[in-house]
Amino acid sequence: MDLLRWPVLGRFLKWRYARPAMQLPLFLVAVAMIVHGLLGPQLAPKNLATVLTWVHYRGILVLVLLGAGNLFCMACPFLLPRELARKFFRPRLRWPRRLRGKGLSIALFVLVLFSYELFDLWGSPAWTAWLILGYFTAALVVDGLFQQASFCKFVCPIGQFNFVASTLSPLEVQVRELDLCARCETRDCIRGTRDSVDLKQVVQRGCELALFQPKKVGNLDCTFCLDCIHACPHDNVGIVTRLPGSELWNDARRSGIGQPSKHKSLAALALVFTFGALLNAFGMVSPVYAVESWLAARLGTTHEAPVLGTLYFLALVVEPALLLGAAALLSRRAARSRETLLTLVTRYAYAFVPLGFAVWLAHYSFHLLTGFFTFIPVAQNAAVPFLGSPRWDWVGLSPGAVWPLEIGFLGLGLLGSLLVGYRIAERESGERAVPAFLPWAGLAVLLAATAVWLLLQPMEMRGTFLGG
Amino acid sequence: MHLRVPPSGRGRLSRPRPFPRLAALAGILLLLLLGSGGCQPPSRPDGLPQVQLAWELAPEPHAVGPATLQLTLTEAGRPVSGAAVKIEAGMTHPGMRSIFATAREGEPGSYRANFELTMAGDWFLLAGFTLRDGRRFERQLDLPGVR
Known about the structure:
The complex is a heterodimer.
Chain A (H helix, E strand, L loop, with lengths): L6 H8 L3 H22 L8 H20 L3 H4 L4 H7 L17 H16 L6 H21 L4 H6 L1 H9 L5 E5 L2 H6 L4 H4 L1 E2 L7 E3 L22 H5 L5 E5 L22 H19 L4 H13 L4 H32 L5 H8 L4 H18 L4 H9 L15 H31 L3 H24 L3 E2 L7
Antiparallel strand pairs in A: 1-4, 2-3
Helix pairs in contact in A: 2-3, 2-7, 3-7, 3-17, 3-18, 5-7, 6-9, 6-13, 13-15, 13-17, 14-15, 15-16, 15-20, 17-19, 19-20
Chain B lengths: L1 E2 L17 H15 L15 E8 L6 E11 L2 E2 L4 E8 L7 E7 L4 E8 L2 E11 L5 E11 L1
Parallel strand pairs in B: 1-9
Antiparallel strand pairs in B: 2-3, 3-4, 3-7, 5-6, 5-8, 6-7, 8-9
Protein backbone atom coordinates (compact mmCIF):
# COMPACT_ATOMS: atom_id res chain seq x y z
CA MET A 1 0.00 0.00 0.00
CA ASP A 2 1.33 3.43 -0.94
CA LEU A 3 -0.02 6.48 0.88
CA LEU A 4 0.87 8.70 -2.04
CA ARG A 5 -1.62 6.81 -4.21
CA TRP A 6 -4.50 7.52 -1.86
CA PRO A 7 -6.98 9.97 -3.41
CA VAL A 8 -6.85 13.02 -1.10
CA LEU A 9 -3.94 12.32 1.23
CA GLY A 10 -1.64 11.35 -1.61
CA ARG A 11 -2.36 14.52 -3.48
CA PHE A 12 -1.82 16.60 -0.35
CA LEU A 13 1.52 14.95 0.45
CA LYS A 14 2.74 15.53 -3.10
CA TRP A 15 1.87 19.20 -2.84
CA ARG A 16 5.06 21.23 -2.57
CA TYR A 17 3.88 23.08 0.53
CA ALA A 18 2.54 20.02 2.36
CA ARG A 19 5.27 20.09 5.01
CA PRO A 20 4.94 23.80 5.89
CA ALA A 21 1.17 23.32 5.97
CA MET A 22 1.66 20.65 8.64
CA GLN A 23 4.37 22.59 10.46
CA LEU A 24 2.43 25.83 10.77
CA PRO A 25 -0.35 24.59 13.10
CA LEU A 26 2.22 22.90 15.35
CA PHE A 27 4.32 26.05 15.30
CA LEU A 28 1.34 28.10 16.48
CA VAL A 29 0.62 25.58 19.23
CA ALA A 30 4.28 25.74 20.28
CA VAL A 31 4.12 29.56 20.44
CA ALA A 32 0.97 29.35 22.58
CA MET A 33 2.76 26.89 24.87
CA ILE A 34 5.78 29.18 25.23
CA VAL A 35 3.67 32.24 25.99
CA HIS A 36 1.46 30.38 28.46
CA GLY A 37 4.47 28.64 30.00
CA LEU A 38 6.22 31.93 30.70
CA LEU A 39 3.28 34.18 31.43
CA GLY A 40 0.48 31.82 32.49
CA PRO A 41 -0.20 30.12 35.83
CA GLN A 42 2.85 28.31 37.19
CA LEU A 43 0.92 25.27 38.34
CA ALA A 44 1.82 22.50 35.88
CA PRO A 45 -1.68 20.95 35.62
CA LYS A 46 -3.12 24.36 34.74
CA ASN A 47 -0.61 25.38 32.09
CA LEU A 48 -0.61 24.56 28.37
CA ALA A 49 3.19 24.18 28.22
CA THR A 50 3.34 21.36 30.75
CA VAL A 51 0.02 19.69 29.93
CA LEU A 52 0.56 19.58 26.16
CA THR A 53 4.24 18.64 26.39
CA TRP A 54 4.28 16.01 29.11
CA VAL A 55 0.80 14.53 28.71
CA HIS A 56 -0.29 14.92 25.10
CA TYR A 57 2.73 15.40 22.90
CA ARG A 58 4.70 12.43 24.25
CA GLY A 59 1.70 10.10 24.21
CA ILE A 60 0.52 11.07 20.74
CA LEU A 61 4.10 10.85 19.45
CA VAL A 62 4.61 7.22 20.46
CA LEU A 63 1.14 6.13 19.31
CA VAL A 64 1.64 7.76 15.90
CA LEU A 65 5.07 6.15 15.61
CA LEU A 66 3.46 2.80 16.37
CA GLY A 67 0.47 3.26 14.08
CA ALA A 68 1.99 5.14 11.15
CA GLY A 69 5.53 6.50 11.16
CA ASN A 70 7.82 9.41 11.92
CA LEU A 71 5.10 11.99 11.31
CA PHE A 72 6.28 14.33 14.04
CA CYS A 73 9.58 14.94 12.25
CA MET A 74 7.53 15.41 9.09
CA ALA A 75 5.55 18.21 10.76
CA CYS A 76 8.35 19.40 13.06
CA PRO A 77 7.61 23.00 14.11
CA PHE A 78 11.21 23.63 15.22
CA LEU A 79 12.34 23.66 11.59
CA LEU A 80 9.90 26.28 10.39
CA PRO A 81 11.96 29.33 11.54
CA ARG A 82 15.04 27.58 10.14
CA GLU A 83 13.33 27.19 6.75
CA LEU A 84 12.44 30.87 6.72
CA ALA A 85 15.95 31.89 7.79
CA ARG A 86 17.49 29.82 5.01
CA LYS A 87 15.66 31.91 2.47
CA PHE A 88 17.94 34.78 3.51
CA PHE A 89 21.10 33.07 4.74
CA ARG A 90 22.96 30.15 3.21
CA PRO A 91 24.93 28.11 5.74
CA ARG A 92 28.53 27.68 4.64
CA LEU A 93 30.02 25.21 7.12
CA ARG A 94 29.98 21.43 6.92
CA TRP A 95 29.18 19.47 10.07
CA PRO A 96 32.49 18.40 11.70
CA ARG A 97 33.53 14.92 10.65
CA ARG A 98 34.32 13.93 14.25
CA LEU A 99 30.74 14.59 15.33
CA ARG A 100 29.09 12.62 12.53
CA GLY A 101 28.25 9.57 14.65
CA LYS A 102 25.41 9.37 17.14
CA GLY A 103 27.61 10.24 20.14
CA LEU A 104 26.55 13.88 20.49
CA SER A 105 22.86 13.15 20.05
CA ILE A 106 23.04 10.27 22.56
CA ALA A 107 24.63 12.64 25.10
CA LEU A 108 21.90 15.21 24.47
CA PHE A 109 19.19 12.56 24.70
CA VAL A 110 20.53 11.48 28.10
CA LEU A 111 20.85 15.13 29.12
CA VAL A 112 17.17 15.73 28.37
CA LEU A 113 16.15 12.67 30.41
CA PHE A 114 18.47 13.75 33.23
CA SER A 115 17.23 17.35 33.23
CA TYR A 116 13.64 16.11 33.21
CA GLU A 117 14.28 14.40 36.56
CA LEU A 118 16.69 16.89 38.10
CA PHE A 119 14.68 20.03 37.38
CA ASP A 120 11.25 18.36 37.59
CA LEU A 121 10.46 19.67 34.13
CA TRP A 122 7.04 18.03 34.31
CA GLY A 123 6.16 20.35 37.18
CA SER A 124 7.49 23.61 35.79
CA PRO A 125 5.68 25.49 33.01
CA ALA A 126 8.46 28.09 32.78
CA TRP A 127 11.21 25.49 32.46
CA THR A 128 9.17 23.62 29.85
CA ALA A 129 8.65 26.82 27.88
CA TRP A 130 12.39 27.51 27.99
CA LEU A 131 13.06 23.98 26.79
CA ILE A 132 10.81 24.57 23.76
CA LEU A 133 12.43 27.94 23.12
CA GLY A 134 15.85 26.32 23.46
CA TYR A 135 14.85 23.78 20.86
CA PHE A 136 13.82 26.47 18.38
CA THR A 137 17.06 28.34 19.03
CA ALA A 138 19.26 25.24 18.70
CA ALA A 139 17.64 24.24 15.39
CA LEU A 140 18.04 27.78 14.09
CA VAL A 141 21.66 28.18 15.18
CA VAL A 142 22.89 24.71 14.12
CA ASP A 143 21.19 24.78 10.74
CA GLY A 144 22.03 28.46 10.34
CA LEU A 145 25.71 27.61 10.58
CA PHE A 146 25.90 24.14 9.07
CA GLN A 147 24.73 22.85 5.72
CA GLN A 148 22.12 20.14 5.14
CA ALA A 149 19.93 18.91 8.01
CA SER A 150 22.76 18.78 10.55
CA PHE A 151 20.44 19.48 13.47
CA CYS A 152 18.08 16.61 12.61
CA LYS A 153 20.78 14.08 11.81
CA PHE A 154 23.43 14.79 14.44
CA VAL A 155 21.93 16.88 17.25
CA CYS A 156 18.18 16.56 17.83
CA PRO A 157 17.46 14.19 20.75
CA ILE A 158 13.77 13.94 19.85
CA GLY A 159 14.76 13.07 16.29
CA GLN A 160 17.02 10.26 17.47
CA PHE A 161 14.18 8.92 19.61
CA ASN A 162 11.89 9.06 16.58
CA PHE A 163 14.45 7.41 14.29
CA VAL A 164 14.89 4.43 16.61
CA ALA A 165 11.17 4.11 17.42
CA SER A 166 10.19 4.39 13.76
CA THR A 167 12.05 1.15 13.02
CA LEU A 168 8.87 -0.36 14.46
CA SER A 169 6.54 1.77 12.30
CA PRO A 170 4.47 0.29 9.49
CA LEU A 171 5.27 3.08 7.00
CA GLU A 172 8.52 3.80 5.17
CA VAL A 173 9.63 6.25 2.49
CA GLN A 174 10.77 3.85 -0.20
CA VAL A 175 11.59 3.57 -3.88
CA ARG A 176 8.77 2.01 -5.88
CA GLU A 177 10.80 0.43 -8.69
CA LEU A 178 14.54 -0.02 -8.23
CA ASP A 179 15.04 -0.67 -11.96
CA LEU A 180 13.88 2.84 -12.70
CA CYS A 181 16.49 4.24 -10.28
CA ALA A 182 19.17 2.18 -12.01
CA ARG A 183 18.41 4.03 -15.24
CA CYS A 184 18.23 7.45 -13.54
CA GLU A 185 21.13 9.77 -14.38
CA THR A 186 20.23 12.93 -12.48
CA ARG A 187 19.79 11.47 -8.96
CA ASP A 188 17.57 14.35 -7.98
CA CYS A 189 16.42 12.50 -4.84
CA ILE A 190 19.80 13.20 -3.24
CA ARG A 191 21.25 16.06 -5.32
CA GLY A 192 18.07 18.06 -5.71
CA THR A 193 16.27 19.21 -8.83
CA ARG A 194 18.25 21.75 -10.82
CA ASP A 195 16.91 24.66 -12.79
CA SER A 196 16.80 23.79 -16.48
CA VAL A 197 18.65 26.98 -17.46
CA ASP A 198 20.91 27.68 -14.47
CA LEU A 199 22.15 24.23 -13.45
CA LYS A 200 23.71 25.56 -10.25
CA GLN A 201 20.32 26.63 -9.02
CA VAL A 202 18.51 23.99 -6.94
CA VAL A 203 14.76 24.44 -7.32
CA GLN A 204 13.82 21.46 -5.17
CA ARG A 205 16.34 20.12 -2.71
CA GLY A 206 17.08 16.43 -2.35
CA CYS A 207 17.56 14.50 0.89
CA GLU A 208 19.37 16.64 3.44
CA LEU A 209 20.10 13.64 5.63
CA ALA A 210 22.31 11.96 3.03
CA LEU A 211 19.90 9.11 2.32
CA PHE A 212 20.19 8.08 -1.32
CA GLN A 213 16.82 6.50 -2.03
CA PRO A 214 17.87 3.41 -4.03
CA LYS A 215 20.36 2.54 -1.27
CA LYS A 216 18.15 3.54 1.64
CA VAL A 217 16.88 0.79 3.95
CA GLY A 218 14.31 1.44 6.66
CA ASN A 219 13.45 4.54 8.64
CA LEU A 220 16.70 5.29 10.47
CA ASP A 221 17.65 8.93 9.91
CA CYS A 222 14.56 9.53 7.75
CA THR A 223 12.53 12.55 8.84
CA PHE A 224 9.72 11.94 6.33
CA CYS A 225 10.46 15.46 5.07
CA LEU A 226 9.08 14.59 1.60
CA ASP A 227 12.02 16.26 -0.20
CA CYS A 228 12.97 13.09 -2.11
CA ILE A 229 9.35 12.58 -3.11
CA HIS A 230 9.11 16.10 -4.49
CA ALA A 231 12.53 15.90 -6.14
CA CYS A 232 12.17 12.58 -7.97
CA PRO A 233 11.38 13.41 -11.63
CA HIS A 234 10.02 9.90 -12.20
CA ASP A 235 7.50 9.92 -9.34
CA ASN A 236 9.27 6.80 -8.13
CA VAL A 237 9.31 7.38 -4.36
CA GLY A 238 6.35 6.40 -2.21
CA ILE A 239 5.33 6.11 1.42
CA VAL A 240 4.67 2.41 1.60
CA THR A 241 3.67 -0.16 4.18
CA ARG A 242 6.18 -2.72 5.36
CA LEU A 243 6.70 -5.26 8.15
CA PRO A 244 7.40 -3.23 11.32
CA GLY A 245 10.78 -4.02 12.82
CA SER A 246 12.09 -5.91 9.80
CA GLU A 247 14.89 -3.40 9.30
CA LEU A 248 16.27 -4.29 12.74
CA TRP A 249 17.65 -7.62 11.54
CA ASN A 250 18.44 -6.42 8.02
CA ASP A 251 22.18 -5.82 8.04
CA ALA A 252 22.49 -4.60 4.46
CA ARG A 253 24.81 -1.61 4.04
CA ARG A 254 22.50 1.34 3.78
CA SER A 255 22.86 4.88 2.57
CA GLY A 256 23.66 7.47 5.23
CA ILE A 257 24.04 4.83 7.95
CA GLY A 258 26.40 2.10 6.80
CA GLN A 259 26.09 -1.42 8.15
CA PRO A 260 24.13 -1.48 11.43
CA SER A 261 26.05 -4.44 12.86
CA LYS A 262 29.26 -2.41 12.61
CA HIS A 263 27.81 0.93 13.68
CA LYS A 264 28.76 1.13 17.35
CA SER A 265 27.24 4.52 18.11
CA LEU A 266 23.95 3.48 16.47
CA ALA A 267 23.91 0.33 18.60
CA ALA A 268 24.64 2.50 21.65
CA LEU A 269 21.68 4.70 20.72
CA ALA A 270 19.43 1.62 20.51
CA LEU A 271 20.58 0.55 23.98
CA VAL A 272 20.18 4.01 25.54
CA PHE A 273 16.69 4.08 23.98
CA THR A 274 15.86 0.76 25.67
CA PHE A 275 17.48 1.20 29.08
CA GLY A 276 16.45 4.87 29.13
CA ALA A 277 12.82 3.75 28.80
CA LEU A 278 13.13 1.63 31.94
CA LEU A 279 14.99 4.38 33.81
CA ASN A 280 12.44 7.03 32.84
CA ALA A 281 9.61 4.80 34.07
CA PHE A 282 11.58 3.98 37.25
CA GLY A 283 11.67 7.73 37.99
CA MET A 284 7.91 7.68 38.53
CA VAL A 285 7.50 4.90 41.08
CA SER A 286 8.04 4.81 44.84
CA PRO A 287 11.16 2.57 44.97
CA VAL A 288 13.23 5.21 43.15
CA TYR A 289 13.20 7.37 46.27
CA ALA A 290 14.46 4.52 48.44
CA VAL A 291 17.28 3.93 45.95
CA GLU A 292 18.10 7.63 45.80
CA SER A 293 18.11 7.92 49.59
CA TRP A 294 20.41 4.91 49.84
CA LEU A 295 22.73 6.37 47.20
CA ALA A 296 22.69 9.76 48.96
CA ALA A 297 23.70 8.09 52.22
CA ARG A 298 26.51 6.17 50.49
CA LEU A 299 27.76 9.28 48.75
CA GLY A 300 27.35 11.42 51.84
CA THR A 301 25.40 14.14 50.06
CA THR A 302 21.98 15.73 50.17
CA HIS A 303 22.25 17.26 46.69
CA GLU A 304 20.18 15.60 44.02
CA ALA A 305 22.51 16.11 41.03
CA PRO A 306 25.33 13.74 42.12
CA VAL A 307 22.81 11.16 43.32
CA LEU A 308 20.83 11.28 40.10
CA GLY A 309 24.05 11.30 38.06
CA THR A 310 25.20 8.15 39.83
CA LEU A 311 21.82 6.51 39.26
CA TYR A 312 21.97 7.37 35.56
CA PHE A 313 25.52 6.07 35.28
CA LEU A 314 24.52 2.81 36.94
CA ALA A 315 21.35 2.39 34.85
CA LEU A 316 22.66 3.50 31.46
CA VAL A 317 26.29 2.35 31.58
CA VAL A 318 27.05 -0.19 34.31
CA GLU A 319 23.84 -2.22 34.15
CA PRO A 320 23.76 -2.55 30.33
CA ALA A 321 27.48 -3.34 30.26
CA LEU A 322 27.08 -6.14 32.80
CA LEU A 323 23.87 -7.61 31.38
CA LEU A 324 24.82 -7.38 27.72
CA GLY A 325 28.37 -8.49 28.46
CA ALA A 326 27.07 -11.58 30.24
CA ALA A 327 24.60 -12.35 27.42
CA ALA A 328 27.34 -11.88 24.82
CA LEU A 329 29.71 -14.15 26.74
CA LEU A 330 27.12 -16.93 27.01
CA SER A 331 26.05 -16.48 23.40
CA ARG A 332 29.65 -16.61 22.19
CA ARG A 333 30.25 -19.89 24.02
CA ALA A 334 26.98 -21.35 22.77
CA ALA A 335 27.70 -20.36 19.17
CA ARG A 336 31.40 -21.32 19.43
CA SER A 337 32.18 -17.93 18.02
CA ARG A 338 35.47 -16.04 18.22
CA GLU A 339 34.02 -12.58 17.94
CA THR A 340 34.73 -9.98 20.61
CA LEU A 341 32.02 -9.28 23.18
CA LEU A 342 31.68 -5.71 21.89
CA THR A 343 31.11 -6.97 18.36
CA LEU A 344 28.36 -9.29 19.56
CA VAL A 345 26.73 -6.58 21.66
CA THR A 346 26.77 -4.24 18.66
CA ARG A 347 25.04 -6.86 16.52
CA TYR A 348 22.37 -7.83 19.03
CA ALA A 349 21.67 -4.36 20.48
CA TYR A 350 18.90 -3.78 17.91
CA ALA A 351 16.98 -6.79 19.27
CA PHE A 352 16.04 -4.79 22.37
CA VAL A 353 14.47 -1.86 20.48
CA PRO A 354 10.94 -3.41 20.35
CA LEU A 355 10.96 -3.93 24.11
CA GLY A 356 12.32 -0.44 24.74
CA PHE A 357 9.65 1.05 22.50
CA ALA A 358 7.00 -0.97 24.34
CA VAL A 359 8.11 0.53 27.67
CA TRP A 360 7.96 4.07 26.22
CA LEU A 361 4.52 3.22 24.80
CA ALA A 362 3.21 1.83 28.08
CA HIS A 363 4.52 4.83 30.03
CA TYR A 364 3.51 7.65 27.71
CA SER A 365 0.18 6.19 26.63
CA PHE A 366 -0.69 5.87 30.34
CA HIS A 367 -0.25 9.63 30.81
CA LEU A 368 -2.04 10.42 27.56
CA LEU A 369 -5.06 8.22 28.17
CA THR A 370 -5.48 8.97 31.88
CA GLY A 371 -5.11 12.72 31.27
CA PHE A 372 -6.45 13.04 27.73
CA PHE A 373 -9.13 15.66 28.38
CA THR A 374 -7.02 17.85 30.67
CA PHE A 375 -6.06 20.16 27.81
CA ILE A 376 -9.69 21.30 27.57
CA PRO A 377 -10.02 23.05 30.95
CA VAL A 378 -6.47 24.39 30.62
CA ALA A 379 -7.31 25.87 27.21
CA GLN A 380 -10.58 27.20 28.63
CA ASN A 381 -8.69 28.80 31.48
CA ALA A 382 -6.14 30.31 29.13
CA ALA A 383 -8.76 31.73 26.78
CA VAL A 384 -11.54 32.70 29.19
CA PRO A 385 -14.16 33.96 28.46
CA PHE A 386 -14.22 32.56 24.93
CA LEU A 387 -14.37 28.88 25.86
CA GLY A 388 -16.58 29.02 28.93
CA SER A 389 -15.89 28.08 32.52
CA PRO A 390 -13.04 25.53 32.91
CA ARG A 391 -14.14 21.97 33.58
CA TRP A 392 -11.32 20.85 35.88
CA ASP A 393 -13.08 17.54 36.45
CA TRP A 394 -12.41 16.51 32.81
CA VAL A 395 -9.47 14.11 32.98
CA GLY A 396 -9.45 10.80 31.12
CA LEU A 397 -9.57 7.04 31.61
CA SER A 398 -8.98 5.50 35.00
CA PRO A 399 -5.51 3.95 35.51
CA GLY A 400 -7.12 0.53 35.86
CA ALA A 401 -8.63 0.79 32.39
CA VAL A 402 -5.22 1.55 30.85
CA TRP A 403 -3.42 -1.28 32.63
CA PRO A 404 -4.37 -4.06 30.11
CA LEU A 405 -3.14 -1.85 27.28
CA GLU A 406 0.20 -1.31 29.01
CA ILE A 407 0.64 -5.05 29.57
CA GLY A 408 -0.37 -5.65 25.95
CA PHE A 409 2.33 -3.26 24.74
CA LEU A 410 4.94 -4.98 26.89
CA GLY A 411 3.86 -8.41 25.64
CA LEU A 412 4.12 -7.30 22.03
CA GLY A 413 7.46 -5.63 22.73
CA LEU A 414 8.89 -8.80 24.25
CA LEU A 415 7.59 -10.85 21.34
CA GLY A 416 9.15 -8.38 18.89
CA SER A 417 12.50 -8.45 20.71
CA LEU A 418 12.54 -12.26 20.72
CA LEU A 419 11.71 -12.31 17.01
CA VAL A 420 14.36 -9.77 16.06
CA GLY A 421 16.91 -11.45 18.33
CA TYR A 422 16.27 -14.82 16.73
CA ARG A 423 16.57 -13.43 13.21
CA ILE A 424 19.89 -11.81 14.15
CA ALA A 425 21.07 -15.11 15.65
CA GLU A 426 20.08 -16.92 12.44
CA ARG A 427 22.00 -14.37 10.41
CA GLU A 428 25.09 -14.49 12.60
CA SER A 429 25.27 -18.09 13.77
CA GLY A 430 23.49 -20.18 11.14
CA GLU A 431 23.04 -23.71 12.46
CA ARG A 432 23.85 -22.67 16.03
CA ALA A 433 21.23 -19.95 16.01
CA VAL A 434 19.12 -21.37 18.84
CA PRO A 435 21.89 -21.71 21.46
CA ALA A 436 23.34 -18.35 20.36
CA PHE A 437 19.93 -16.74 20.74
CA LEU A 438 18.97 -18.13 24.16
CA PRO A 439 21.11 -15.81 26.34
CA TRP A 440 19.73 -12.77 24.52
CA ALA A 441 16.20 -14.14 24.88
CA GLY A 442 16.83 -14.58 28.61
CA LEU A 443 17.93 -10.96 28.88
CA ALA A 444 14.87 -9.76 26.97
CA VAL A 445 12.60 -11.73 29.32
CA LEU A 446 14.46 -10.27 32.32
CA LEU A 447 14.01 -6.71 31.04
CA ALA A 448 10.33 -7.34 30.25
CA ALA A 449 9.81 -8.72 33.77
CA THR A 450 11.48 -5.58 35.15
CA ALA A 451 9.08 -3.45 33.11
CA VAL A 452 6.06 -5.37 34.44
CA TRP A 453 7.41 -4.97 37.99
CA LEU A 454 7.72 -1.23 37.38
CA LEU A 455 4.10 -1.05 36.24
CA LEU A 456 3.02 -2.86 39.38
CA GLN A 457 4.73 -0.36 41.68
CA PRO A 458 2.74 2.46 43.29
CA MET A 459 3.26 5.66 41.36
CA GLU A 460 4.88 8.54 43.19
CA MET A 461 5.37 11.86 41.49
CA ARG A 462 7.67 13.83 43.66
CA GLY A 463 10.13 16.55 42.87
CA THR A 464 12.14 16.27 46.06
CA PHE A 465 14.09 13.06 46.38
CA LEU A 466 14.89 13.22 50.09
CA GLY A 467 11.34 13.89 51.12
CA GLY A 468 11.57 17.69 51.19
CA MET B 1 -12.89 40.44 42.76
CA HIS B 2 -9.91 38.24 43.56
CA LEU B 3 -7.69 38.98 46.52
CA ARG B 4 -4.37 37.55 47.57
CA VAL B 5 -3.94 37.18 51.30
CA PRO B 6 -0.57 36.98 53.04
CA PRO B 7 0.49 33.50 54.13
CA SER B 8 0.22 32.50 57.75
CA GLY B 9 -0.38 29.19 59.45
CA ARG B 10 1.35 26.01 60.40
CA GLY B 11 1.72 24.22 57.10
CA ARG B 12 4.23 24.65 54.35
CA LEU B 13 2.86 27.31 52.07
CA SER B 14 5.35 27.27 49.28
CA ARG B 15 8.67 25.82 48.31
CA PRO B 16 11.40 27.51 46.35
CA ARG B 17 11.24 26.88 42.62
CA PRO B 18 14.36 25.43 41.03
CA PHE B 19 14.66 28.20 38.53
CA PRO B 20 17.89 29.98 37.67
CA ARG B 21 18.21 33.71 37.95
CA LEU B 22 19.39 34.01 34.39
CA ALA B 23 16.28 32.29 33.08
CA ALA B 24 14.11 34.43 35.34
CA LEU B 25 15.87 37.54 34.11
CA ALA B 26 15.40 36.50 30.49
CA GLY B 27 11.74 35.78 31.23
CA ILE B 28 11.32 39.21 32.76
CA LEU B 29 12.97 40.82 29.76
CA LEU B 30 10.60 38.95 27.46
CA LEU B 31 7.69 39.98 29.64
CA LEU B 32 8.79 43.60 29.47
CA LEU B 33 9.18 43.32 25.75
CA LEU B 34 5.73 41.84 25.28
CA GLY B 35 4.04 44.17 27.69
CA SER B 36 5.93 47.38 26.95
CA GLY B 37 2.95 48.83 25.09
CA GLY B 38 0.47 48.96 27.93
CA CYS B 39 2.24 48.04 31.17
CA GLN B 40 0.35 49.00 34.33
CA PRO B 41 1.55 48.88 37.95
CA PRO B 42 -0.33 46.18 39.91
CA SER B 43 -3.51 47.54 41.42
CA ARG B 44 -4.11 47.21 45.15
CA PRO B 45 -7.06 44.83 45.64
CA ASP B 46 -9.78 45.95 48.03
CA GLY B 47 -9.53 44.61 51.56
CA LEU B 48 -5.89 43.45 51.29
CA PRO B 49 -4.31 42.39 53.60
CA GLN B 50 -6.86 42.18 56.35
CA VAL B 51 -7.92 38.53 55.97
CA GLN B 52 -5.57 36.03 57.58
CA LEU B 53 -5.57 32.32 56.82
CA ALA B 54 -4.21 29.53 58.95
CA TRP B 55 -4.39 25.93 57.88
CA GLU B 56 -3.60 22.46 59.04
CA LEU B 57 -3.81 19.13 57.26
CA ALA B 58 -4.11 15.89 59.18
CA PRO B 59 -2.58 13.38 59.35
CA GLU B 60 0.88 14.83 59.76
CA PRO B 61 3.17 13.85 58.03
CA HIS B 62 0.88 13.94 55.03
CA ALA B 63 0.06 10.47 53.76
CA VAL B 64 -1.90 8.72 51.05
CA GLY B 65 -5.47 8.15 52.21
CA PRO B 66 -8.18 10.20 53.93
CA ALA B 67 -7.12 13.71 54.92
CA THR B 68 -8.79 16.47 56.87
CA LEU B 69 -8.05 20.10 56.10
CA GLN B 70 -8.72 22.64 58.81
CA LEU B 71 -8.83 26.30 57.73
CA THR B 72 -9.15 29.28 60.02
CA LEU B 73 -10.05 32.71 58.65
CA THR B 74 -9.63 35.85 60.71
CA GLU B 75 -9.87 39.54 59.94
CA ALA B 76 -8.48 42.11 62.34
CA GLY B 77 -8.24 39.35 64.93
CA ARG B 78 -11.89 38.36 64.62
CA PRO B 79 -13.13 35.12 62.98
CA VAL B 80 -14.54 35.48 59.46
CA SER B 81 -17.79 33.61 59.47
CA GLY B 82 -20.15 32.59 56.66
CA ALA B 83 -17.59 32.15 53.88
CA ALA B 84 -18.07 29.64 51.07
CA VAL B 85 -14.88 27.57 50.77
CA LYS B 86 -14.08 25.26 47.88
CA ILE B 87 -11.03 23.02 47.85
CA GLU B 88 -9.23 21.50 44.88
CA ALA B 89 -6.50 18.96 45.67
CA GLY B 90 -4.27 18.14 42.71
CA MET B 91 -0.89 16.67 41.91
CA THR B 92 1.90 18.85 40.59
CA HIS B 93 2.30 16.45 37.65
CA PRO B 94 -0.02 17.45 34.81
CA GLY B 95 -2.71 15.09 33.62
CA MET B 96 -3.68 13.66 36.99
CA ARG B 97 -7.18 13.59 38.44
CA SER B 98 -7.88 16.40 40.91
CA ILE B 99 -10.14 16.00 43.91
CA PHE B 100 -12.78 18.59 44.77
CA ALA B 101 -14.33 19.22 48.15
CA THR B 102 -16.36 21.86 49.98
CA ALA B 103 -15.27 23.00 53.42
CA ARG B 104 -17.99 23.31 56.04
CA GLU B 105 -17.91 25.83 58.85
CA GLY B 106 -17.86 24.46 62.39
CA GLU B 107 -16.75 27.02 64.96
CA PRO B 108 -17.12 30.60 63.65
CA GLY B 109 -14.31 31.24 61.15
CA SER B 110 -13.19 27.62 61.25
CA TYR B 111 -13.75 25.49 58.13
CA ARG B 112 -13.13 21.79 57.63
CA ALA B 113 -12.94 19.68 54.47
CA ASN B 114 -12.47 15.94 54.12
CA PHE B 115 -10.99 14.37 51.00
CA GLU B 116 -8.60 11.64 49.99
CA LEU B 117 -5.04 11.96 48.75
CA THR B 118 -5.05 9.13 46.23
CA MET B 119 -1.38 8.85 45.30
CA ALA B 120 2.06 9.45 46.74
CA GLY B 121 3.96 12.46 45.45
CA ASP B 122 3.80 16.24 45.40
CA TRP B 123 0.34 17.74 45.88
CA PHE B 124 -1.09 21.21 45.99
CA LEU B 125 -4.32 22.48 47.47
CA LEU B 126 -6.22 25.38 45.99
CA ALA B 127 -8.63 26.91 48.46
CA GLY B 128 -11.14 29.32 46.96
CA PHE B 129 -12.95 31.66 49.40
CA THR B 130 -16.07 33.74 48.85
CA LEU B 131 -16.71 35.93 51.88
CA ARG B 132 -20.16 36.92 53.01
CA ASP B 133 -19.61 40.46 51.71
CA GLY B 134 -18.78 39.14 48.24
CA ARG B 135 -15.02 39.47 48.43
CA ARG B 136 -13.20 36.48 46.87
CA PHE B 137 -9.70 35.21 47.05
CA GLU B 138 -7.73 32.05 46.35
CA ARG B 139 -4.84 30.53 48.21
CA GLN B 140 -2.42 27.83 47.12
CA LEU B 141 -1.08 25.44 49.73
CA ASP B 142 1.77 23.09 48.79
CA LEU B 143 2.00 19.53 50.07
CA PRO B 144 5.32 18.13 48.90
CA GLY B 145 6.30 14.54 49.47
CA VAL B 146 2.99 12.91 50.39
CA ARG B 147 3.85 9.27 51.16
